[in-house]
Amino acid sequence: xxxxxxxxxxxxxxxxxxxxxxxxxxxxxxxxxxxxxxxxxxxxxxxxxxxxxxxxxxxxxxxxxxxxxxxxxxxxxxxxxxxxxxxxxxxxxxxxxxxxxxxxxxxxxxxxxxxxxxxxxxxxxxxxxxxxxxxxxxxxxxxxxxxxxxxxxxxxxxxxxxxxxxxxxxxxxxxxxxxxxxxxxxxxxxxxxxxxxxxxxxxxxxxxxxxx
Length: 212
Ligand SMILES: [Zn+2]
Fold this sequence. Notes:
Structural class: mainly alpha
Bound molecules: zinc ion
Helix content: 55-70%
Largest sheet: 2 strands, antiparallel
Strand content: 5-15%
Distance between the termini: 61 Å
Shape: elongated
């Protein structure tokens, strides 16, 4: 048994962190007091400032890069990213839209220099709401996040129409995006005169009723 220097309570040795410098091999501060101290310490403004400054130093950045290049760490980071995308629809949309826009610039041999949300002309939450509305409008059924994996981001006016970087940016405005079922998107492809018909709608409804 030992008395904690902070809370003055007498507790068994196991309740004290190990400390080689002490005679009995345990710290004078109990584990719960140490935890409180640590939490408070991390909240101190001078500690936060020091930490913020430290993570910007070339020394820290190099160390972090080496750490993140380790295969097991790389795998862990990637898994976390994929998990987040799968559990958070908005995160998935942010990722997919960014990739889609980067690739459409690449395909034309141009470079995407603006931020995705600037090209879209709205924030991602508004974009997601817009997409859901196009889905409801296209298929006449209420939105459900479970449809996400079945849908493609379609450009209403196909990108093939763009002859300049400026036009490509215009065609990536959020108002030119809609949700289409993957097979309908493939059928539409670069066609300008393609329209969603009632038989398309029935086909999709039949598909999801079989799936669920
Ligand atoms: Zn204590």
